[in-house]
Design a protein that fits this description.
- The complex is a heterodimer of chains A (502) and B (502).
- By secondary structure, chain A is of the alpha/beta class.
- Chain A has 2 domains: 9-270 and 472-489, Aldehyde Dehydrogenase, Chain A, domain 1, CATH 3.40.605.10; 275-454, Aldehyde Dehydrogenase, Chain A, domain 2.
- Helix content of chain A is 41%, strand content 19%.
- Chain A is built from 16 helices and 19 strands.
- In chain B, strands 13-14-15-12-11-16-17 form a 7-stranded mixed beta sheet, sandwiched between helices. In chain B, strands 8-7-6-9-10-18 form a 6-stranded mixed beta sheet, sandwiched between helices.
- Chain B has helices at residues 2-13, 58-73, 82-98, 100-111, 115-136, 172-186, 200-212, 226-235, 248-260, 284-296, 313-328, 348-363, 395-398, 414-422, 437-446, 481-484, and strands at 24-26, 29-31, 38-43, 48-54, 151-159, 162-166, 189-193, 219-221, 241-245, 265-269, 275-278, 308-312, 367-370, 385-388, 405-411, 429-433, 451-454, 473-474, 487-495.
- Chain B is globular.
- Chain B is built from 16 helices and 19 strands.
- Chain B is of the alpha/beta class.
- Classes of the chains: A alpha/beta (502), B alpha/beta (502).
- Chains A and B meet through strand 5, helix 9, helix 15, strand 17 and strand 18 of A and strand 5, helix 9, helix 15, strand 17 and strand 18 of B.
- Strand 19 of chain A pairs parallel with strand 17 (451-454) of chain B, so a sheet runs across the interface.
- Chain B: It comes from Spirodela intermedia.
- Chain B: GO terms for molecular function: aldehyde dehydrogenase [NAD(P)+] activity.
- Chain B: It catalyses: octanal + NADP(+) + H2O = octanoate + NADPH + 2 H(+).
Chain lengths: 502, 502
């Protein structure tokens, strides 16, 4: 893959670099912010400015919510049959497939994600997610009830109304559709506030949505900052629901803002410090492969990162040896290079933060086995890093680092692994590597986390509900359960007379 | 009832129930508050102190949560099968039936509730509520999923952990079991903070729970005040969930406290300003009867009170005339008297608040049709009050009064009444009186409220989920949906090989 390939990559990238959409998308139109302000989004491969994007604030959120409210209260979208909404959503999915390359390139440039993976896995997964919910839109069921006297009762599941989605920068496209797909299927209208670190793909999707036939006002995108646009959305008196994915500290602010405004229901998907528990009977090759994925995938910028790797003592030494080898073959570089495994961290703030955690690790006495340093002099690249001899009370074992830093820990018994795995305020996910049925069942039931992966990791699926326990949040994305977040349940009761049964 | 009746009403005037339990119930024992403090609970029939009750504060909440945490993490309750929990819960229900008279007299003297009604209806319904959830405990199902590749996925519904229940004073027994029954069935452990206005029956129930075999630490009761004990529970770092029923203003504080502490999951059942819509085709006598119940039942101290009565112009005059007549036959008096329809308001604060709303109604220009004054010179009794010519902007049409005050309004068309019915930040319930199928369907779908009663009102049922839209809150009590609040959904995913189908 010599210099010739590199040249081709640059040309390819340039062709796709044209950034077409940089304004706010309100009521079917791309518009400037009321204040006319803009902000810059940087490219993590170089640290340089990528584009100037309209900076939305309270007035823009007000306009967007107004459009969404009108579209919900008087527009077509909630009044269409589910199958019609499904048809339009499938058209959007087709358009996404058609533009997969352009979208993957945007995401690589804006958030440092791997281009090839984006193009053949992530973006197609977005369109599949849309299709999943497109197919669910006409299968939203309530119940007829079993009343205890001569009454007829049933529940109706109605779209909750105007939804605010606040999404993070680590998987801009995936997060966009995780939220938007079920909300569209349910018949809601919405305002999306993408992360300021990665605002570009959301605007492209808004453009495609209009092209697909989603009526004006149903899907609005207001770019800007959390403390301005995000806060305005969370406190808005006319938003019926907020769906948030992001950090625990901002999750608190969102929930507080809701409590202080109109008590809108909130779902939060926040951080994690997920344990990957590897038992003696595991195949070391498979286990080290999984662990590497669990910690370094997407440069560690994933909420479910298996950042605490517990290895049973019987295979510990071999595990460490093979992990080190595997770390060395993990390639860090330009995300447009198809042979690269890890791109740059999303911005300088994250980059500095991860490195400071590495320092904490060293100072607190963990053993740095490999990595720990920046990679190259330009951009925000960090070497895949492994610490051993990590103790449960060390900062690197307790706090979410959100970078390619693995904490390796040895354990003896299954009871010990369970106890240590649960000693965290988080509860997003967990991994178990074993072939033993009883170990798998016992540990999967005992670990307090919203998703448990057995002999796999990051095995997401459109039909599998995803969401945390404890301080990782509440509410589910994906699966039929995700629809519940965008529906209100209404009970309707009527007396009945002369019914032949009760 | 004759002369014997006269004798008994004399005796009833002096009737003070024997108050056996006045201390906090923590880990299976009745104990004083750590501070030794007590507070008085008032008898609203006289305005005098009924009993001195232990006043729990933060330290007591800490002890109770500690006991509940131990009982959950290491105790039997969550580890029992659903059918074993059922057995104990059924015994609990039987004990309630056995002690119904004592319990009814407690709620009567403590909260001004009608004795006959509480003894023959409300408390037996509480026992039935426990039986409903007892029968559900072994029917808590997750799902096996339909994965899109060679993976096996299923969801497990696990008890959420330690629950805090904060309950109001208007239906002390019903509210206690609305919360406690599903939480017990789900396998959770809990701390109940009853309202300070009506702490007595909760303590009795705790005693019966122990007798029934509910293990120590599973059910704890801390009586005390909102800003101390309630706040401590909402902010507790080791409580997994708060279930709250009460005022909107306190609901905000609970949600804020959760956001600022450990982001515990919150469900809120708050106020309402529910519309009762009577159409021209209604039988006027039936409609007037319904409206009277809707506005005056339980002295108006009910969240779903149909306090806004919309009557179509065709039957309006007859409706007003008959309502005024019917109000005259609505008897106010001592709640131990079986002939009485309405007891005293729960305390002086509520009493004064309602009278000030009545005053406001007059000042803002509504016409006082009947009532509007206190009843008698002792205790907190208020006449059933009807205002006509009420306009939507008036305070009495917008604020929740929580007293026996009906606002009567005339409407012309179905579009108009739907719009006016929805012109509120609340969305708890609504009533429709018509026998026209299309009106019933259209209006029930158009009104944004969690429960719609057609040709009935306050038709609660155990299998019917109850909870509001908009600022009336989120989350459901009772029905199988009532369990959801006390369960967490975990996805378990494993790769599969050589499966003959996907």
């Amino acid at each position: 893959m010599g210099s010739e390939t590199k040249g081709m990559l640059e040309i390819q990238k340039d062709k796709m670099t044209e950034i077409k959409f940089t304004k706010l998308f309100i009521n079917g139109e791309f518009v400037d912010a009321v204040s006319r302000k803009t902000f810059e989004t940087t490219e993590p491969r170089t640290g340089e400015v990528l584009a100037s994007v309209a900076e939305g604030d309270k007035e823009d959120i007000d306009l967007a919510v107004k459009a969404a409210r009108e579209a919900f209260d008087h527009g077509k979208w909630p009044r269409l049959p589910g199958s019609e909404r499904g048809r339009i959503m499938r058209r959007l999915a087709d358009l996404i497939d058609e533009h997969a390359e352009e979208l993957a390139a945007l995401e690589s440039m804006d958030a440092g994600r791997l281009f090839t993976l984006g193009k053949i896995i992530d973006i197609p997964a977005c369109s599949r997610n849309l299709r999943y919910f497109a197919g669910a839109a006409d299968k939203i069921h309530g119940l007829t009830l079993k009343m205890s006297r001569e009454l007829q009762g049933h529940t109706l599941k109605e779209p909750i109304g105007v939804v605010g989605h606040i999404i993070p920068w680590n998987f801009p496209s995936t997060m966009f559709f995780l939220k938007v797909s079920p909300a569209l299927a349910a018949g809601c209208t919405m305002v999306v506030k993408p992360a300021e670190q990665a605002p570009l793909t959301a605007l492209f999707y808004a453009h495609l949505a209009k092209q697909a036939g989603i009526p004006d006002g149903v899907l609005n995108v207001v770019n800007g900052f959390g403390s301005t646009a995000g806060a305005a959305l969370a406190s808005h008196m006319d938003v019926d629901k907020i769906s948030f994915t992001g950090s625990t500290e901002v999750g608190r602010l969102v929930m507080e803002a809701s409590a202080k405004s109109n008590l809108k229901p909130v779902t939060l998907e926040m951080g994690g410090k997920s344990p990957l528990i590897i038992f003696d009977d595991a195949d070391v090759n498979v286990a080290t492969e999984l662990a590497r994925m669990a910690v370094f995938y997407n440069k560690g910028e994933i909420c479910v990162a298996g950042s605490r790797v517990f290895v049973q003592e019987g295979i510990y030494d071999e595990f460490v040896r093979v992990s080190l080898e595997k770390a060395k073959s993990w390639k860090v570089g330009d995300p447009f290079d198809p042979t690269v495994n890890q791109g740059p961290q999303v911005d300088k703030v994250q980059f500095d933060r991860v490195l400071s955690y590495v320092e904490h690790g060293k100072r607190e006495g963990a053993t740095l086995l490999t990595g720990g340093k920046p990679c190259g002099e330009k951009g925000f690249y960090i070497e895949p890093t492994i610490f051993a001899d990590v103790k449960d009370d060390m900062i690197i074992a307790r706090e979410e680092i959100f970078g390619p830093v693995m904490s390796l820990m040895k354990f003896k018994t299954v009871e010990e692994a369970i106890e240590r795995a649960n000693k965290t305020r988080y509860g997003l996910a967990a991994g178990i590597v074993t072939k033993d049925l009883n170990t798998a069942n016992r540990v999967s039931r005992s670990v307090r986390a919203g998703t448990v992966w057995i002999n796999c990791y990051f095995a997401f699926d459109a039909d599998a509900p995803f969401g945390g326990y404890k301080m990782s949040g509440f509410g589910k994305d994906a699966g039929m359960a995700a629809l519940d977040g965008y529906l209100n349940t209404k009970a309707v009761i009527t007396p009945i007379f002369d019914s032949p049964w009760l | 009832m004759g002369s014997e009746g006269n004798d008994s009403s004399e005796r009833q005037k002096l009737r003070l129930p024997e108050i056996k339990f006045t201390r906090l119930f923590i880990n299976g024992e009745f104990v004083d508050a750590v501070s030794g403090k007590t507070f008085e609970t008032i008898d609203p029939r006289t305005g005098e102190a009924l009993a001195s009750v232990a006043e729990g504060d933060k330290e007591d909440v800490d002890l109770a949560v500690k006991a509940a945490r131990e009982a959950f993490d290491h105790g039997r309750w969550p580890r029992m099968s659903g059918s074993e929990r059922r057995k104990i819960m059924m015994k609990f229900a039987d004990l309630i039936d056995r002690h119904v008279e004592e319990l009814a007299s407690l709620d009567c003297a403590d909260a001004g509730k009608l004795f006959t009604h509480t003894k023959f209806l409300e408390i037996p319904q509480c026992a039935e509520n426990i039986r409903y959830f007892a029968g559900a405990a072994d029917k808590i199902h997750g799902e096996t999923l339909k994965m899109s590749r060679e993976l096996q996925g299923y969801t497990l519904r696990e008890p959420i952990g330690v629950v805090g229940h904060i309950i109001p004073w208007n239906f002390p027994s019903t509210m206690f079991f609305f919360k406690v029954s599903p939480a017990l069935a789900a396998g959770c452990t809990m701390v109940v903070k009853p309202a300070e206005q009506s702490p007595l029956s909760a303590l009795y129930y705790a005693h019966l729970a122990k007798e029934a075999g509910v293990p120590d630490g599973v059910l704890n009761v801390i009586t005390g005040f909102g800003p101390t004990a309630g706040a401590a529970l909402s902010s507790h770092m080791d409580v997994d969930k708060i279930s709250f029923t009460g005022s909107t203003e306190v609901g905000r504080l609970v949600m804020e406290a959760a956001a600022k502490s450990n982001l515990k999951v919150v469900s809120l059942e708050l106020g309402g300003k529910s519309p009762l819509m009577v159409f021209d085709d209604a039988d006027v006598d039936t409609a007037v009867e319904l409206a009277q119940i809707a506005a005056f039942y339980n002295k108006g101290e009910i969240c779903v009170a149909g306090s806004r009565v919309y009557v179509q112009e065709g039957i309006y005059d007859e409706f007003v005339r008959k309502s005024a007549e019917k109000a005259k036959s609505w008897k106010i008096g001592d709640p131990f008297d079986p002939q009485v329809n309405q007891g005293p308001q729960v305390d002086k604060k509520q009493f004064e608040k309602i009278l000030s709303y009545i005053d406001l109604g007059k000042r803002e220009g509504a016409t006082l049709l009947t009532g509007g004054k206190p009843c008698g010179d002792k205790g907190l009794y208020i006449e059933p009050t009807i205002f006509t010519d009420v306009k939507e902007e008036m305070t009495i049409a917008k604020d929740e009064i929580f007293g026996p005050v009906m606002s009567l309004m005339k409407f012309k068309t179905i579009e108009e009444v739907i719009e006016r019915a929805n012109q509120t930040r609340y969305g708890l319930a609504a009533g429709i009186v018509t026998t026209d199928l299309n009106i019933a369907n259209r209006v029930s779908r158009s009104v944004r409220a969690g429960t719609i009663w057609i040709n009935c009102y306050m038709a609660f049922d155990r299998d019917c989920p109850f909870g509001g839209f908009k600022m009336s809150g989120f989350g459901k009590d009772i029905g199988m949906a009532g369990l959801d609040k006390y369960l967490l959904c975990k996805s378990v995913v494993t790769p599969i090989y050589n499966s003959p189908w996907l």
